[in-house]
Amino acid sequence: MKGNNTSPIGWQEVSLGDVASVSLSSVDKHMRPEEREVYLCNYMDVYNRDRIDSCVDLSRGTVSESEYEKFRIRKGDVFLTKDSETPDDIGRSSFATQDMEDVVCGYHLAILRSDNKNLIGPFLKRIFDLPRIQGRLGGMANGATRFGLTKPTIENLQISIPSLGAQKRIVGILETWDQALFLLTKKIKLKTKNVEAISEKLLNGKIRLDGFASKWVTVRLGDVATINENSLSSSTDSAYSFRYIDLASVDRGYCELPNGHITFANAPSRARRIVERGDILMSTVRPNLLGHCIVEIDAKDIIVSTGFAVIRGKERHLNNRFMFLHLFSKRFNYILKNMLTGSSYPAINSSAVGDLIFDLPPYDEQVAIASILSTANDEIRILKRKLRILSDQRKYLLGNLMTGLIPVPEHLTEATYV
């Protein structure tokens, strides 16, 4: 091993093969009675997860005894996607947090086992998390229709490493962020699942709020709301400028507002719908993708695509917030699905939106339901914003800790990785 002047002080640049063994798995998916039955850590298990442990649901397979000894998963092993149809998917990695007696590494993966004298597995895993390393591996992959890394290519990869103590301290810091991200992601999933379950029941009258007992009534949307009430005409001043929202700008209740303005003369032909604050934008093209949102801001300079139906509830008949939430319910989407036309791009004609039939509670109950569910959804939105912040912080730490740009003081406790 040799260091060079490009490495930070106290770090050395080495070839990966000098500090870790590299094996390319030959284990494919099959069941043979004469072989040993095992669980397989496959390509997608590595592609979709940062770590492999006993909580991962793995497929079954069989291997020979020699394959078992060579590719059995041990704590600290790092797995690398070495083959793919596109170079961008080369170099995705995961690592084993525990010994796994009956689990072997599957086909199209490389298994890297650090020597633990110069390099530890969790640090190696974070090296592969660096975008520049992933990009380098993708660039080194050979192929035309399918790309792959050879064993020598992986072994010759140049990496910079600090002392073992520094590696453990860096891993400890990053593990703190990883655990925070894991727990917050788990909390968001659980809360989202619970909110979706209660939403479905509240929005369809399966459970009622205290104080409300009046019957729900079956209504036609066009009788309780206006649909596409205002649009720009073809004679609109060509210099009229506005911010334009197209279908691609909206996803599951979120709208990405454009910063710049365009003029009517340069706008797409679909830029016609005039909206007001509080209006609902319901996607009429592939509505199963749930590209709906509610206009939360002053909309004086906003025009939206004719791919949206602009729904505006009539006073004391339909609460916009309730209707917006209703667009995401399974029951409403089942009703909507039966009105779609087309196969490649299933859509509902804007003129047919008003014919949607659904059950509606009294107005005051609509407001109460919308308030409860909006508060719950806002809480999830806050948690997701926190998740993005933590993720950005983790990326910053990864890029700076793993390259020595941020020194790690020796007094920090060396983490024991799990």
- Biggest sheet strand line-up: 2-11-7-9-4
- Corresponding CATH superfamily of the largest domain: DNA methylase specificity domains
Poorly predicted sequence stretches spanning 5 or more consecutive residues: none
Q: Which oligomerization state do the chains in this entry correspond to?
A: single chain
- Name the overall outline: elongated
Class from secondary-structure proportions: alpha+beta
Structure description:
This protein has 418 residues and is α+β, with helices and mostly antiparallel strands. The chain folds into 2 domains: 12-161, DNA methylase specificity domains (Adenine-n6-DNA-methyltransferase TaqI, Chain A, domain 2); 217-360, Adenine-n6-DNA-methyltransferase TaqI, Chain A, domain 2 (Alpha-Beta Complex). The chain contains 12 helices and 26 strands. It has helices at residues 16-19, 43-48, 65-71, 121-129, 131-140, 151-155, 164-203, 221-224, 320-326, 330-337, 350-353, 363-401; strands at 12-15, 20-24, 36-41, 51-52, 59-63, 72-73, 78-81, 83-84, 93-96, 100-105, 109-114, 142-143, 147-148, 158-161, 217-220, 225-227, 241-245, 250-251, 254-255, 262-263, 271-274, 280-283, 293-294, 302-305, 308-313, 357-360. Strand 12 (142-143) and strand 13 (147-148) form a beta hairpin. Helix 7 (164-203) packs antiparallel against helix 12.
